[in-house]
Design brief:
Blueprint (H helix, E strand, L loop, with lengths): L1 E3 L1 H14 L4 H16 L10 H9 L10 E6 L2 E5 L5 H19 L1 E9 L6 H9 L3 E6 L20 E5 L7 E5 L6 H10 L8 E2 L5 E2 L2 H7 L8 H18 L17 E8 L10 H9 L14 H11 L1 E3 L1 H10 L4
Parallel strand pairs: 3-4
Antiparallel strand pairs: 1-11, 2-3, 4-10, 5-6, 5-10, 6-7, 8-9
Helix pairs in contact: 1-2, 1-11, 4-5, 6-7
Length: 332
């Protein structure tokens, strides 16, 4: 892996995005989201995804000029249409609307249809937490996971995010797909030639395996909690498609280079609307760390240290990905 200074990474991404048809302001916003994801250690969903993102623009699945438009609203609940615009920009806007509604009503819920892959899901939970809000968001995806008891991929791995703010900025954050290992994680293990630490799916013969490439080839990852994860995935799909009045997983193309038009939901909850903000989160962390020698972390604990290290040493980027990004930017 190369180590690229953060500012150089952002500048290169901006140039590439301008060449892909983004206006200057939107190119900067989109570049920031890609770079921040990689800076924070979510390497599978940052710049590593950028070449695929460019291909989705080239084949017309993502419209770089499109912005979300309002569809309907009732109090703290709104529905928007993403118009097949860039998924990360659409998601950032939509969580922003949920935050604005929560500032007004104490809670905001915004669903968006006809949007695209939002890249790092946790970005939008942290967006809420940085505003002092509890953030919850989820999306459906293309069909890439079989239901429990089946072998055909008809469910999405439908990521769920929950973020809770802390006064010191080291927020609680969970960001996980409904498969035991996301496809991004499987790709990472396979690229490193490593086995999974625990079984993560089935091979083409239907046998449980820890071989990431076998799971990718079979397109049969293991749902978290077995049948519970299968049901969880389905319910997230039902809620997202219903609130957005958009596509459900079975209506989304199973081709990763044609995955478009997904449905997403963003909730922001303002605890301060009910009175003084509780410090219960800090107390829970203290209770978690009662064993001095145990390797126990709260969700999101590693993020500040990872962010600091990468800003000091440079952002880790795969050499091939960096070369391809530079070509898109017209620098190579």
């Amino acid at each position: 892996m190369l180590r690229i200074p953060y500012d150089e990474l952002v500048r290169t991404l901006v140039l590439a995005l301008r060449n892909l048809g983004f206006t200057p302001g939107r190119a900067q916003e989109c570049a920031n989201l890609f770079a921040e994801t990689t800076r924070d250690g979510v390497y599978t969903h940052g710049i590593a995804r950028f070449p695929r993102f460019a291909k989705l623009i080239h084949n017309g699945a993502v419209h770089p000029e499109a912005s979300p438009t309002p569809v309907s609203a009732f109090g703290a609940l709104e529905r928007w249409d993403g118009n097949y615009g860039p998924g990360n920009l659409n998601a950032w806007h939509t969580m922003g609307r949920a935050i604005a509604l929560a500032q007004q009503h104490g809670i905001g819920c915004v669903a968006i249809r006809h949007t695209n892959h939002w890249m790092r899901a946790g970005t939008y939970g942290l967006q809420a937490a940085e505003s002092g809000m509890i953030g919850i968001c989820f999306t459906n995806t293309m069909p890439n996971m079989a239901p429990w008891g089946g072998s055909k991929s008809v469910l999405g791995n439908n990521p769920l995010v929950i973020a809770v703010p802390r006064a010191n900025g080291a927020h609680f954050l969970i960001d996980f797909a409904m498969s035991q290992f996301s496809y991004g994680a499987l790709d990472g293990y396979a690229a490193r030639g490593e086995q999974l630490p625990v079984p993560g799916g089935f091979d083409k013969e239907g046998k449980l395996t820890s071989d990431p490439q076998a799971i990718i080839d079979s397109n049969h990852p293991l749902p978290i909690g077995y049948w519970k994860g299968s049901a969880f995935s389905m319910m997230l799909d039902v809620v997202a498609a219903t609130l957005a009045f958009g596509q459900a997983t079975h209506q989304v193309s199973p081709d990763p280079l044609r995955e478009a038009g997904v449905s997403q939901v963003f909730l922001a909850i303002n605890p301060a609307a009910l009175g003084p903000v509780s410090t219960i989160g800090d107390e829970i962390i203290a209770s978690l760390h009662i064993e001095p020698d145990a390797k126990v972390r709260y969700p999101g604990e590693r993020l500040p240290a990872t962010r600091t290290e990468n800003m000091e040493k440079g952002i880790p980027v795969d050499e091939d990905i960096w070369e391809e990004t530079r070509k898109l930017a017209g620098l190579a």
